[in-house]
Specification:
By secondary structure, the protein is mainly alpha-helical. It is 65% helix and 9% strand. The chain has helices at residues 4-10, 16-26, 32-58, 63-75, 83-90, 94-106, 128-148, 154-174; strands at 80-81, 110-115, 118-126. The protein has a 3-stranded antiparallel beta sheet. α3 (32-58) runs antiparallel to α7 (128-148), α4 packs across α7 and α5 crosses α6 (94-106). The protein is elongated.
């Protein structure tokens, strides 16, 4: 007889319709339209994260490394940040950030050097190789994303983007400290 965790892993996820029907059976006040939107967004997010993780893995990058590369690129040229800034931005402890930077420096994706103007401060900088890895990940992601949205017209894409941005703003306004990390819930 399989262990419960094995049985759970083998069980297929119910369809959205089946999930909503089960929720309605147990909680009669449920709005099925709201639940369909929220459940679809959750499933889409989970599956997209898996797809992105597979893509970065083909490049020899972990999701954790991708997050650092992304943060450095978004910071703008010269693509530098302090490890404390990175840790805070990514919701990591300083020790976890140090470990991540060590690994990435050994792989040639970033450098870590003392700030010449403030010898106490360390600067983490994106290398040419790190930027190339980021660009290749972006190329793969753009192909995946174009395929994902291929059935939507330009107008539908624009409308979807606007609606999702409104939802995101509502959550951000209601939970301004919930920057996408669950560390406060661990």
């Amino acid at each position: 007889m399989p262990e419960p965790s094995d049985a759970a892993a083998d069980a297929a996820e119910p369809s959205l319709e089946e999930q909503i029907a089960a929720y309605q059976r147990e909680f009669q006040d449920l709005d099925p339209q709201v639940e369909q939107v929220v459940s679809a967004l959750q499933r889409l997010n989970r599956r997209m994260n898996v797809a992105y993780g597979r893509q970065t893995a083909t490049l020899g990058l972990s999701n954790a490394e991708w997050e650092v590369l992304k943060a450095l690129v978004v910071s703008g040229a010269p693509y530098e940040m302090g490890p404390g800034e990175l840790a805070k931005l990514l919701g990591l402890t300083p020790a976890a950030m140090t470990h991540r930077i060590d690994r990435m420096a050994n792989e040639g994706l970033v450098t870590r050097e003392r700030d010449e103007t403030n010898r106490v401060r360390v600067i983490v900088a994106l290398t040419h190789e790190g930027r190339e890895k980021w660009l290749e990940a972006m190329r793969l992601a753009s192909v995946f994303e174009e395929d994902l949205l291929q059935d939507l017209s330009g107008e539908e894409r624009q409308l979807l983007g606007q609606v999702l941005t409104r939802l995101l703003r509502r959550v951000e306004d209601a939970q301004p400290d919930a920057d996408g990390r669950l560390s406060d819930l661990d």
